[in-house]
Design goal:
Mean pLDDT: 93
Low-confidence stretches: none
Protein name: CPBP family glutamic-type intramembrane protease
EC number: 3.4.-.-
Number of helices: 9
Organism: Shewanella zhuhaiensis
Number of strands: 0
Radius of gyration: 18 Å
GO biological process, one term: proteolysis
Helix content: over 70%
Largest sheet: none
Order of helices and strands: HHHHHHHHH
Distance between the termini: 34 Å
GO molecular function: endopeptidase activity
Oligomer: single chain
Shape: globular
Length: 204
Amino acid sequence: MLQSSLLVLAMVLLGDWTGPKVKLGTPVIDALLAGDSVATRLKAMLLPAIVGGILGGVLLVAFFAFSAPSLPAGFLENGREFSPPIYTRLLYGGITEEVLIRYGLMSFFTWVIYRLSQKPGAETGAHCYLLAILLSSILFGVGHLPVASLLSVELTPALITYIIIGNSILGVIAGLLYWRRGLEAAILAHMLAHLVMIAGEWFM
């Protein structure tokens, strides 16, 4: 628990340091702290976040349905038996993972790519964000492999591919939202995607 808290704190500090340098951040929280109009910031992010979350959830449900026949039976059975509570999926997945991956890692990657590819003072290029989204999304997927290894006797190529690509799908959507609408949009989309996936599990 202490290690997880320290990791989150480290990513918050990393995001605080690198995010503003490449115009990434938390517009709703910033407006709230500054006493500005929160409603204006919310209006700008709500629709993209809702669309992104629903789209991400539908894509993940479809990708699971496509991949399930090739996944280890033990992984599928254990996944159903040991599925985390809804509040854990929403709070840890929606908030903690977004702070770690988007606010921390993606901000850092964007800044590093900017420093390596552009002159100081230049406007941050789209390629910086897109490469950072790709890198952080892949790492997001790879980061789920230890959990998958606990649910399956072996990590088959099909399972590894499913875990990395499946999580990267949501990672790309959340990354785009973080870039264009702020961390709060990515958090909301991540939560909605989990709700869609939970609904999908009930019908599958």
